Amino acid sequence: xxxxxxxxxxxxxxxxxxxxxxxxxxxxxxxxxxxxxxxxxxxxxxxxxxxxxxxxxxxxxxxxxxxxxxxxxxxxxxxxxxxxxxxxxxxxxxxxxxxxxxxxxxxxxxxxxxxxxxxxxxxxxxxxxxxxxxxxxxxxxxxxxxxxxxxxxxxxxxxxxxxxxxxxxxxxxxxxxxxxxxxxxxxxxxxxxxxxxxxxxxxxxxxxxxxxxxxxxxxxxxxxxxxxxxxxxxxxxxxxxxxxxxxxxxxxxxxxxxxxxxxxxxxxxxxxxxxxxxxxxxxxxxxxxxxxxxxxxxxxxxxxxxxxxxxxxxxxxxxxxxxxxxxxxxxxxxxxxxxxxxxxxxxxxxxxxxxxxxxxxxxxxxxxxxxxxxxxxxxxxxxxxxxxxxxxxxxxxxxxxxxxxxxxxxxxxxxxxxxxxxxxxxxxxxxxxxxxxxxxxxxxxxxxxxxxxxxxxxxxxxxxxxxxxxxxxxxxxxxxxxxxxxxxxxxxxxxxxxxxxxxxxxxxxxxxxxxxxxxxxxxxxxxxxxxxxxxxxxxxxxxxxxxxxxxxxxxxxxxxxxxxxxxxxxxxxxxxxxxxxxxxxxxxxxxxxxxxxxxxxxxxxxxxxxxxxxxxxxxxxxxxxxxxxxxxxxxxxxxxxxxxxxxxxxxxxxxxxxxxxxxxxxxxxxxxxxxxxxxxxxxxxxxxxxxxxxxxxxxxxxxxxxxxxxxxxxxxxxxxxxxxxxxxxxxxxxxxxxxxxxxxxxxxxxxxxxxxxxxxxxxx
Length: 764
Known about the structure:
Elements lengths: L23 H20 L1 H4 L2 H26 L7 H16 L8 H25 L4 H20 L4 E2 L1 H4 L18 H18 L1 H11 L1 H6 L4 H27 L1 E2 L7 H11 L11 H20 L1 E9 L2 E9 L5 H21 L3 H9 L24 H5 L5 H6 L4 H17 L1 H4 L2 H26 L7 H17 L5 H26 L3 H19 L5 E2 L3 H4 L5 H7 L6 H9 L2 H19 L1 H11 L1 H6 L4 H27 L1 E2 L7 H11 L11 H18 L3 E2 L5 E2 L6 H21 L2 H25 L1
Antiparallel strand pairs: 1-2, 3-4, 5-6, 7-8
């Protein structure tokens, strides 16, 4: 008897894409949002107890939610788009200029199509910079953020553009109105984008390719996925969504201001991360990001609305109770949102990878604790060392030829050329000691910031918080003297301590927790700025002790305060040289010696060149990275102390956009955004280049007909951003990849091949 076993066809299994439309994470967010809304009702029932509150939350969520849809694709791709706020502002301003009767006076449809094309162009530029030219995404989009913000200021001149009367004749503006059902039409646009984005990411090949690229770019390429196009496509979607959000804004407001979109990138990134996406890529859902946007907006509303209360005032001896609203001071909301961003990013390494919920469940049920989730992908992290062929060709050379092969040579030469250009344009003004003094004063602030950033960038990290730390330390010094009555020495010590605390926090998150430096310092960017405004209640403080103000004066003023009167040449020099210039020279000298002639400096270069190899060599790379970030914040704090002394007042806007100047200084001075390179003299030369460019652009040029011309200052950041992009691209392609020599080699190879072919033909 024989048994025959016939194996039937295997059951067909439907292959499902990894992501799902909705999960337990989103369910938990809904529960948390319900409790948060109830808290709002208890705090302020007059607002949150009405349908107006729900309508306002959904309306504001609509714009951020649309942007979060596009940002989800970028973050799942393991990239980041910091330019969405500027793109929103640029599109809104462009539409207003095209549509407003006081400007080009086009119809709404034409203006809308042009603006959609403009948004796609920004996304295409971002994608090409990141995917083709290999510029790190946070540098590419950070630069586009500042360029876009500069263009917005330049186009508006800092003024408001309004067109409410003309808007009545166009149906486009109905998108910003409340419909018959009682809710804003922008909510419908948000729902369309949310559903379309969720299906696109979860149930199509586009989504599959996005998850594959973000999870493991190299493996995705082996699987035949064009990862370059996937990344470009994500930036296109992100900018398209930002453009639509900009149009939603103008549809509602029927006008625009130069502040449109400021800070929107923080809210959008926080929304996507809070919604369950991983900053390390490969995970995230569109619906989670949309719920994250609603959560962030709801938190913002709860914090801003305040608590109804009553105050007792004395009017002519009569005590009267008046209704009032107790609110958080200015700066509290951005500080809280910065903390929210950092907390959301920490969910990945602490809660998700650590499997905290699973371990808690096992502990409650007295079961064996489950293993932590492996983050994956760490084994394929490649080395960062990117040797420059120009450095290799300079080995063995002497004199000027050796200097030309230095990475900082271009910055030094450009510095000399720019100064000579200023002298040629205005010799009557440019060569004077007074102008030199003013240039040195402007140079000190950027120079100090660039000193600390030289260490950080040589480490392969970045510090986006230096401008905000400058503001926080200045606020601490001003508050200590003005409100607490402290002496100048105490104010300086506390201000520097605040900077060190910020650096320690940045270093702990980056070196110890493993958070990407640009995310950790981006959070501090908002936290420190918010705390500075909170500390001074958004006011400008002034009238500090004159002994403190001497820190921002020239030597002649300091000497006169001690009863010493300089004469002759020494007096002229004393008027041109300031205390802060001498301070910068001392700090720069010490920093240069430490970086170039000590073991710690070599550890910095080794860590930035190849962190894993440096660890194998026995270097404590975590300590090196932490100390570098602390030094960067300390330099920023010193700049804040000098800022208050020089201007004899403190403004909460101190240090705005200075992080771009400082980063550009280091990169122009030969530092590599990939780490392993950078010199103090190069960074100072780069800072001088930035200072001289600003001075030249603000220089009054006299024409032959007697008229004069000055470059509009609103466009300044556009020039700085373009210079930074050129420096980064030049570092990648000219220094690292040596594209010119490669082109020459291939050309010579083709010429040799043609010559060999002709020789073979003649011989035959």
